[in-house]
Amino acid sequence: MHNASSSVTSPDRDEDRRDEYPKVTQVDLDRDSASITPHRSSTAAYGNHVIANGSHAIADNTYAIAYTSSAIADSVHVIAYNASTMTDDVHAVTYASSTAADSAPAMVDGAPAMTENLPAMASRVEK
């Protein structure tokens, strides 16, 4: 069985370690913050400069997207051209349908002529 007291750090050891670290006073903190402040401002200015460069890169990407959109517009033009070709084919089908319609009245005109002959045939049978 493990001894529980062996895993606990003694208070004497913590006191010994505190002496290893340098003592920091408020004067030290004030001095350090005064010397750090200009560097932070300079870094912020540099950060803004980097953001400006990032915006420039985004502008370049937007140009690439605009170029791609132009290519898409060209594709749409090709589709419109194909649609125009299809319209020509539909016109040809319509013309063929019109020809069939012209033939149909001729057949209808022939039908009454046959009907007129039927009573004549019927009268012959009766005689």
UniProtKB/TrEMBL annotation:
<protein>
    <submittedName>
        <fullName>Uncharacterized protein</fullName>
    </submittedName>
</protein>
<feature type="region of interest" description="Disordered">
    <location>
        <begin position="1"/>
        <end position="41"/>
    </location>
</feature>
<feature type="compositionally biased region" description="Polar residues">
    <location>
        <begin position="1"/>
        <end position="10"/>
    </location>
</feature>
<feature type="compositionally biased region" description="Basic and acidic residues">
    <location>
        <begin position="11"/>
        <end position="33"/>
    </location>
</feature>
